[in-house]
Amino acid sequence: MAMKKSFLLMGFCLIPCLFGCRSNPPSPSANAPLTTPSVRFRNVAPEAKIVFNRNNGAYGKYYLPETMGGGGGFIDYDNDGSLDILLLNGAWWEPRATNEGKPTPALYHNNRDGTFTDLTKEIGLDIFCAGMGVAVGDYDNDGYNDLYITAVGRNYLFHNEHGKGFKEVAQSAGVQDKGWSSSVGWVDYDNDGKLDLFVCHYVQWTPETDISCTAKGFKSYCRPQEYRGESCRLYHNEGSGRFRDVTRQAGIENQKSKALGVTFLDTNGDGYTDIIVTNDMEPNFVFLNSGKGTFKEIGFESGIALGDSANARAGMGVDVADYRNEGIFGLAIGNFSFEGIGFYPLTAKPPYLDTSKQIGTHAPSFPYVTFGLFFADFDNDTWQDLFFTNGHIEDTVHKSSPEQNYEQPSILLKNRGDGTFGDVSAQAGADLALPIVGRGACSGDFDNDGKLDILLIPNRGEARLLHNETSQAGHWMTFRLVGKQSNTNGYGAQITVEAGGKRFRGVCRSGSSYQSASDARVHFGLGDLSQIARVSVKWTTGKEQVWTGLAPDRIWQLTEGEGEAR
Amino acid sequence: MKAKTSPAPQKAEQKPQKKLLFVVIFLLFAIGFMVYRITGTLSGSRTNPQLRVSDDLVINTPPLPQTGDITALQERLYKVADRSRALATSETIDRGEWLEFAREAGLAGDTLTAYYALQVGNSMTPNPAVYEPLGHIEVQLCLFNNALGTYTAMAQVPDLRLASQLGLSRAYSGLQQNERAMEILHSVEKTLSPTDFAGHMEVAIALEEHGQQAEAIEPMRKAHTIAPENSTITRRLAFVLHNRQQFAEAQSLLEALLGKEKEEEAARTHLLLAKLFRNPLNTHKDLALAESHLLLALQVESQKRDALKSLGELLLEQNRIRPALALYSQLLILAPNDGSLRLKFANAYLRLGDTANGNAQREIAQVLIEQERRAEGLITLRNQKPMEPQTHLALGKCYREQGKTALALASFQTAYALSQGGKKAEEELKNLYESLKVPLPPYKEMISIAIEPLSSRPVKRHIWR
Lengths: 566, 465
Known about the structure:
The complex is a heterodimer of chains A (566) and B (465). Chain A is mostly beta strands and 566 residues long. Helices cover 8% and strands 34% of the residues of chain A. In chain A, strands 7, 8, 9, 10, 11, 12, 15 and 16 form an eight-stranded antiparallel beta sheet that branches. Chain A has a four-stranded antiparallel beta sheet with strand order 1-31-29-28. Chain B has helices at residues 17-43, 71-88, 95-108, 111-122, 128-140, 144-154, 161-174, 178-191, 197-209, 213-226, 231-243, 247-257, 263-278, 287-300, 305-317, 321-334, 339-351, 355-384, 389-401, 405-418, 423-436, 443-451, and strands spanning 93-94, 459-460.
């Protein structure tokens, strides 16, 4: 017996040595210095006259919605070519709602001189609701972007009245919904040229069914495990301003869902957009589109349902990008502190494997609770960087865990161009790293200078507009797609830019990040490439269109079926 | 330079010559390995010819998930059931015998029988020495109000005051009166003598159980100051400090322990040091050193699952897939029903490009993980409402499906106790015992004896030890 034990012992101890005892990370360049230019951001919200203090409604009850934050987005609602800004607000809960002023969302019109004007009331967005997420899209193909706003209790569809204002039509359109919705996105899942609506739902909660929770002796927000989940909903656009709830028949119904994030991508190249959903402490979903109006949930088979240790993590913000410029998209998912971001290269066939620890995205995200998260090439060097905003959910976390804070710094990871990322937050300016209770976040080039800016909507406190002040950024191109047979936003269309013998890929889409709407125009950094060989767009109709001779460093409008770019 | 501080392997005990030979061979391997690691780490230019694994390397297919071995449990429960029947039908009530039997039943994993046996043994003339095990079992069975009564009575006994207060705190915590539970702990802490090692230690443990790691540090420090050579308190303190990201102090405490503690305990210290050096928040994170400590832990205890799991994760983190695969294949022999391990094993295959084996293992993992997640969901429900018998019943059924018989038994017994012998719980217990081919202990008879000892039976008194 002793002999057997000794052999076993030796066997175990020698296993690692038999195959080598290398302890360095696999990537030879994982610690390589990051190249210039260094990305820099500055908060210009005050000088841009964006004065928005998000109210999370907290007054000691520790209602769960108070800590889940809200989003915002970039929307060019009047088609003047400049991005306006929408910011969602929280709500007071009864009985305080009757005694206090009622917070509302805010829409800031871009004056195109670096300043914005608050036009919330004038255009009809001064509603009182516990705002959560927003999606921007032209659901009736009239050429103007409409707004879908999710909230606790019910949701809102604002029809854009030709840039003059918004009219709330959720009930008549059949998308008023109920329960607690979070992130949302427009997607033409059946390629019929009309935008459908995918709405994430979180948990079954009302002030009446609220559970009182404590954590480590302090009154606290409950964990999602304490509540039952709510199924996400899919609304099919029937035309004529009407939608039909197809959640069950499409195979989306799943009551275990506690969804906080959604992103859209055709993961298997069959021409139909699939839906990736992040869940809080429940396995993440991948809804694979059959192309016949139904989806198959393959989260586990795809490998993204669970973390490395087979644990369901606190999935929140999510995004995808061709981070290696090889046509293999990377999927990044924000999680809770001590879980780290999940990073999955979406290879030709699932299952996809989490490479976060190997490529440098795990350690910088490990201490933080990551909500808003997205890819963007901030320095236009052709490589998609990764930004995420963080903030704990417990305002008293420092009492029970002195090393943790409610306010946490945002993080910017620069893509090294070899498949790995490095943390450049410290060099990106104090305004980026300033600790906030990060929740909503999105990107957009509000001043059309070719460099992507960042909008941050903290759980409570001032919204921040981080202007990209990177010097010596590379060349760039931005495309606004206009669908004709496809949906007018061009959502789902794939754009490829060919320059210098390289191919850069992007997808025009709604969704991503956390409860927020980034600029729907597709931006490419081109580095030192000034000669563009070809730009092609594969529309959701399946047709491909090619443009040549386009110059860099400007915004182009590419219209389906029109040979001339504008 | 960190590698220089790496501790030397613990000395093996003197053993017969044949065994000694193996130990020496092993130590030579280990020392050789350490020298190789240290020189490699220092030179920074180590090559790994052994990484080139031959194509004919065969990874043993790990066993499929298995129903747990219930033979030992069967035997234990059979003995308890047999003896409980004998005692219940005995012509005399020997309190001492019942109390001894309660202890045996508890050790056998039959909490419910232990509970009723304690009640019988404690009936008529309550015995203060019974309070502590009785309260403990009442908390285990979620009979928190009963536990409050027991610990309140216990508080009247001067020598048992500390234990009674800790028990009251646990009972209030079970009743979800956390503030009250914490108040009690804080007041106990204030009354402790500066030299009361056990007191500080127990308060610290209780605070930890309440999730108050930050507050547990102070009594832990006091206990450590009183008995710095005590490895248990040192490790506990280091563990909490590690969790508080006070890495340097945790490291120095642990390194001071090495070489001073018993060999079998050194594995735990190495494991903690490995955890410390693997932590991404530790500015002195050092995977090579973490690996060394894991290997040293495995020298002491070759089948230490925590160390093996940790080593597997470390290998995967470094993309050393083949050794990870080999390690997981061995680890799954020890734990074939562990969904997490199975998934890692599958992912290791997939990372090597072996989709056939990878997907086959993933399918097995999926079933295991879904079962585990279902149990987790029910545990959350149980924690929300611990005094609702139906949640314990559902959890018990879930455990049965997973082949976790001992856990199923505990859940059904709690449901039975909470529902005061409810039919559904009784049915589940009967089914479980039937499947084990063990007769159900005479719970109802025991209850009736406890409530109203048969006047016709003579009562023999005994002192509970």
